[in-house]
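User:
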Amino acid sequence: MPQKPNILLLILDTLRRDHLSSYGYHRNTSPYLDDFSVEATVFDRAIAPAQWTIPAHASMFTGLYPSAHQLTQAGGKLSGHHPTLAEILRVDGYHTVGFSNNPLVGVLNNDLTRGFDEFYNYSGASPNRPIDQKRSRIRRALTTQFRRVAGQVSNLFAQYDELFRLSLNPMFFPALSRFVNYKGDTERSVDDFLDYWATQQAGGSDQPTFAFLNLMGAHTPYRPPQDTLRHIAPDLVDDRHAFGFISNFNGDPARWASPIDQPLEDWQSYALEAFYSAEIAHQDMHVGRLLKTLKQGGYLDNTLLIIAADHGEGHGDHRFFGHGFVVYQELVHVPLMIHYPTQFPAKRVATNISTRRIFHTVLDVAGVTPPLASDDPNANIDALTLHRAVNGRPDPESGIAYAEAVPPKTFLHVLEHRTPHHIDELSLTLTRRGIYEGDHKLALVGDHVEGLFDLTTDPTEQTDIAQSDIARVETLQTKVNHFVEQTEKQHHHHASDGEVSDDVADNLRQLGYFE
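Assistant: Predicted structure:
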């Protein structure tokens, strides 16, 4: 009997779809991803279920929208009633391993690492690498103890607003960000992953591998190598004015998530986009190394490889920076490519799909049934796998996808001290949602319409056509209301121990939830 496929989920954190040359960007930012995309299924309308790291990863790991899994805050924890990909695959015989450069996935105590046999962190004051296992027992013990303390401190910063604001102070952040490896270490994590993968495959183990790799190269602060910047924007290499602006921007992290009253000047926007693009290009080089090694080693022959972004990034678009509050295209329209030729041929797919369906796609290819009740819509792997969108079978979601932006409380508290007028002016305490159907998108702030957009003619959402298409607005708003009702019902169903069936309880017991 052939071995089940290996699985690699590669998340390119904070990567805007519209800044990849494989998706039409005017700069050559992603030549290696471009080459990969030629042999993969490329989704042109992949929508992130959330606008920032924690809820977006929780959705990809559980298949649930944020309203259902409810992990929307830095101090939260994923409910034990939502089994993760790693947990389900491990019970089915997979060896599960994670390599993460984002401290929000692996350092914080939010249970996103549940189910991983091994998990390595490249951010934080004490990174954790596979090589640590080869050190002396005493050194390993000291490192483990220091790492435990460092992790506890990191979680305190996520839970206490005063500490979080202090960490963003421009006086401390530049030095602090380097000390805590804020963006991890892309090069080392790729090297470690490739060494680990080769060892696993050479060992002749009967266990297939599920690997998760998160790269943070596209995240702020922007400090690309000079040669990469020269390739992307040669005119900026000697521009002291531009470097001064980027240096000030990098050193003021509270600005990364703060709305603005006036748009950036053209030269500022140009510099920001160029430095961001250079970071993408530098990361793409390392992604290229990874892809080349996997291909030359024959490792892709029986591997499901999924490459996606968890969310994008705002650079002053629609008055917002960062990825804290909105569901505009720059944040939730993300790249998604899948390589597994037996089920995912080389083609482009124009259907609206949610990246939460990565969960269902992985389980479908692995031939695994999740430990969920038969009447739970999230258990319908056959219906929700993205294989449906590729082979022309009817899509149960009818080409509809949703995005939800629950305001992160830590960012709100920063704005209370920085620019409090923005909170009421921009309704930042309200949840924003977007619904995609066909070529149109409706964005809502709470129950109020923020805008209706025709994305074929207006891909950057500059023209609100809500007043000229009221019937469509009403129809889409009704669907959003029904979506919220259903996802919250899904959450309450799982939140109550008394509503877990005996069959589900048995499955959860296998995952280690119950004694």
